[in-house]
Amino acid sequence: MISRAYKSSGFSMIEVLVSLLIIVVGVLGMVGLQSKAIPYTQNSVQRNTAIMLADDLIELLRSHPDCNSSTCSKAPGTAFPVTTGACVPTPTAINDQLACWAGQASNALPGAGALLLKSFYICWSTVPGDVANCGSGKEIEIQLAWTVKQASDCMDANDSTSTTCTYKVRTRL
Description:
- The protein is α+β, with helices and mostly antiparallel strands and 173 residues long.
- Helices cover 44% and strands 13% of the residues.
- Strands 1-2-3 form a three-stranded antiparallel beta sheet, with helices on one face.
- The protein is elongated, with a radius of gyration of 27 Å.
């Protein structure tokens, strides 16, 4: 009776290998999730930065009562104003404030400096997305852009082949 209890106690080699296989599959699954989480986190941080920059721009435009489609707009393909002085303290002229904001956006979003001309815009329009007719309307549409390393890192639903991500917001001042 003692020898039978001695033989049945403990684990066999097959049981150890099966439990090791289950642990390895679980760890590999967690590694796969981690590799997917990094691009999502980076996209979230960049998108939040773009949201804060757009909010800053909207508040900047709201703070100027004389701001309209001719004084506070930037069509795609046109340049932001160039500042004539320092950004600290905050300048009083709207063009200088827009120039300072563009510099801030260029520093905050990756690759935004190269995209300021063609991908950023401040468009007054009546129809969402109608950037060809900027300057007519009471609503303002703002687009910001930044670059990512791979097209799959950009979580935009519009284009899955571009390494340029965009954020658009539309509001009435």
